[in-house]
Amino acid sequence: MTIRILGISGSLRAQSFNTALLRAAVPLAGDGARIEPATLHGIPLYDGDLEQAEGTPAAVRALKEKILASDALLLVTPEYNNGVPGVFKNAIDWLSRPTPGLPDVFRDRPVAVIGASPGGFGTIMSQTHWLQVLRTLGTRQWHGGRLMVSRASAVFGPDGALQDEKVRAQLGEFLQGYAASLAAT
């Protein structure tokens, strides 16, 4: 059985370090695991009036369906002003709302968090902020490893390819550890 992990990049930028980190993760998941990349494009700002008038937006429903088709989540988070990026938190807020015909996408779902930043501390504050959000949503957070890529402009080439072999090895170890923990449950 192949473990299906949905990886979500928390950035909308075309040249995002976190989207590049997610792309680099895909071939490193190891035997028995597959990572499907996803983005937040098309998800509007949360608006209760919009939700009441029109229901769940199509982009939110599509991402919920991808989450439900997966066995686990990998959140690939930037860090803005020492915290969770607004666009990523907004998407999670939408995803946590009830959608007719679909079950809760977070309750008891395994989740791991990684991230990349041009700064010297990686995404330590953003990842720490995610802990309380994920706990509130009732996810099963994986704490078997941490990956916070700092000085990302030196880790990724101009084309977005991961060029740092040490980070590649750390990413592979993280992902394979996560996949092994999923296989054990």
Mean pLDDT: 96
> What CATH first level would be assigned?
Alpha Beta
Based on Cα principal axes, name the global outline: globular
Q: What percentage of residues falls in helices of 4 or more residues?
A: 40-55%
What is the gyration radius calculated from CA atoms? 16 Å
CATH overall fold name: Rossmann fold
Please, how many domains?
1
CATH architecture: 3-Layer(aba) Sandwich
Largest sheet: 6 strands, parallel
How much of the residues is beta strand, in percent?
15-25%
What is the count of DSSP helices, taking H or I runs of 4+ residues? Answer: 7
Instruction: Catalogue the unreliable spans.
Output: none
How would you describe the oligomerization state of the chains in this entry?
single chain
Structural class: alpha/beta
The CATH H-level superfamily is Flavodoxin domain
What gap, in angstroms, lies between the N and C termini? 13 Å
Q: What is the succession of H and E elements?
A: EHEHHEHEHEEHH
Q: How many E strands?
A: 6
Structure report:
It contains 7 helices and 6 strands; from the N terminus they run βαβααβαβαββαα. It is an alpha/beta fold. The protein has one domain: 3-Layer(aba) Sandwich (Rossmann fold). Strands 1, 2, 3, 4, 5 and 6 form a 6-stranded parallel sheet that branches. α4 links the parallel β3 and β4. The longest helix has 19 residues. The model has no long low-confidence stretch (mean pLDDT 96).
